[in-house]
Design a protein that fits this description.
The protein has about 350 residues and is of the alpha+beta class. The protein folds into three domains: about 1-55, no CATH class; about 55-110 and about 130-250, Ribonuclease H-like superfamily/Ribonuclease H (Nucleotidyltransferase, domain 5, 2-Layer Sandwich); about 265-335, SH3 type barrels, CATH 2.30.30. The chain is about 25% helix and about 25% strand. It contains six helices and 16 strands. It has helices at about 20-30, 90-105, 130-145, 170-185, 195-205, 225-235, and strands at about 5-10, 15-20, 35, 45, 60-65, 70-75, 80-85, 150-160, 190-195, 245-250, 285-290, 295-300, 310-315, 320-325, 330-335, 340-345. The strands form three sheets. The chain has a seven-stranded mixed β-sheet, sandwiched between helices. The chain is globular and about 70 Å long. About 30% of the residues are buried.
Amino acid sequence: MQQPRVPVVSVDGRPLMPTTPANARKMLRDGVAKPRRNKLGLFYIQMTRPVGTAVQPMALALDPGGKYEGVAVASHRQVELTGQVNLPTGVPDRTETRRNLRRARRFRKCPRRPARFNNRRHGGKYWLAPTQRSKVAARLKAVHELCRIYPIQAILVEDVRHEPKGKEDRHFSTAEVGKKLTYAELGKLAPVTLVTAKDTAAWRERFGLKKLTGPNRPEVFEAQAVDAVAILMGVTGCGHGHPPFHVWTALRFIRRSIHRQNPQKGGIRPRFGGTCNGGHFRKGDWVEAEKAGRVCRGWVCGLPTAATKLVGVADAAGKRIGQFSPAKVRLLARAGGFSWKEVRAAFLP
């Protein structure tokens, strides 16, 4: 695996060409640059004095999917970064639960609002169902964060097309609207070039890139990001270089609701959910916690309450590591909407 180069931005935040880790350390040591980290957890440096703004062309490839997105960034020489974006899941079930709770409140003596399902107009050119809207938002947010630290001048996207059959027919139009909206927003960042799945498969076979298939694929480069790399190598002619592979997962929390679904002791329904409670920490914050001499890093998943004064911390996959005293938890970065981790490749050369 190649040594990853460090992204660089100018004083005013304009992306410049990446540099080597050795040069980055020298600039940080001499005070020419200062360290930064974006919402995807990627480390980069920002210059503290004006420098030249000339850059070489860089491209970003996107391999869309229903649950996972393959992403890769390359210069004219080699692939600089690869990653996989885990899109939000479970949105239809949460929407159905919210609808049922709202309907039930209209027949009880509790805070509620009148029914407004039949007096709505979908404003704007596009309307997206909640499921597609959450996926498109996560996809575009990840691309935006990469374009802020890399001078992307071209975006390559695999255009997925298929003929709907049976039950898929009534959902296919929503997916098409989401795809068109994605292309329109990507076009605001850089010119978009569409490629077919057949071309991607041909390039993957030509360059000897292996791909894992199946429903239970691990989170490795060969599962999703390999197609994005094949697109970059086929269109731009850059080399592979075995860059680092990152996994970004869209964080999902229980949003603040009026009350719990079931009555508690005494028939009371207390308020439930939310990402903050007036304290120092918020759900999704990247923190470093210590307990019994063991130090770990993760994302806040539980806040102190009247029942427990501890802070819950989860790993990149959303699994809770443990509960820690607030005095033993140190804030590293505010919530950015994603968790991240770096994964080694399954097939090394």
